[in-house]
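Blinded run. Sample ID left blank on purpose so nobody reads anything into the name before looking at the predicted structure. Input follows.
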Amino acid sequence: MTTEEKYMQRCLQLAQNGLGTTYPNPLVGSVIVSENDEIIGEGWHLKSGEPHAEVNAVSDAEKKSYDGDVSRKRQYTSI
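Blinded prediction complete.
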């Protein structure tokens, strides 16, 4: 499994957290990855009408990041 496939697999796992609450939106998971290939933020779409997985992953990464800057990080999303 490639590194990218590993991140996408994690996105699919995270997406399952929204099962039963996101309709009519799809299940979506997202991760933010540092320059060192470390997952520093994770998120999923919690509920229809609320922020999407990408936004939740960025918020999580900003909280955990030493400098709070996610502009140079990579984001993987399962949609």
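Unblinding after everyone has recorded impressions. Residues 44 and 53 are 4 Å apart (CA to CA).
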